[in-house]
Amino acid sequence: MIRYFAKRLAMMLVALFMIILLTFVIEHSIPGGPFTSDRKVSPEVEAALNAKYNLDDPLPKQFLSYLLGVIQGDFGPSYEYTGKEVTDFIRNGFPVSAKLGGITILFVIITSIPMGILAAVKNGKWQDMLIMAVATIGVTIPSFVIASLLIYVFSFRLNLLPTFGLDTWKGYILPVITLGGYSVSYLARQMRSSLLEVMGQDYIRTARAKGLSETKVIFKHALRNALIPVVTVIGPTIANLLTGSFVVEKIFAIPGLGVHFVNSVSQRDYTTIMGVTIFYATFLMAMVFLVDIFYCLIDPRIKYE
Questions:
Q1: 42 vs 47: CA distance, rounded Å
Q2: Fewer CB within 10 Å, N side or C side of the chain?
Q3: Cα gap 28→30, rounded to integer Å
């Protein structure tokens, strides 16, 4: 077990290093720089800014300097906002995204899993067809279209919910539905297909032959094994939701981590792009690692050697 965890940790560190390297190379391969914009900064001022932030150093030296800072937990200063550190954006933006994401995760789990179970139990009936139709719509329609439709109906037409901000509990309703719509639809379909596959196994037929009720067969014998593929998907889904959605936060004017990333890309704020990317990648890999651990709790037959 210890060898497995050590191997996984080493793989995560290698993957994180490659992400840092690729992000650094890609953003520096784009013509121009963080101080090249429509504001027409004079060449003298631009040269002084590049010297201040060591952007006139060779790229290998810049990369090594940045990498040493990351190892020490320092993502550097923001090039766009004077006096602001990238860690300030993460420290202020992540709690907002995490709170919205946490509520969305609860909404996704308590909605998608029952939907998938009901669709599997009522396979081929009108309940199954209705749930799968809703799930197909949720998977195919982009989140910005869902957000626009919800704002038009519930804010402009019915005047029931606010269009931006998270000042009241009503402000969470539209962003949560928009942010969780795809995940609910996808997990419901995954839960249905996984449960249908498990229900066709021999041990389920044996349990039914023993005279067990259908409820016991589903929730005591089938559901636990059917959750394994769903848990595989839930791990990255949780990471995506907790770190914020770029589109949703931008549409609903939520000051989370996602909107900082969007602004940093448009402003070519290199350090903010790097910092948010590293934070997101680390969080995503950590969630996938936790999912692997949960496998042992869900299915005792799974052992890590």
A1: 9
A2: C
A3: 5
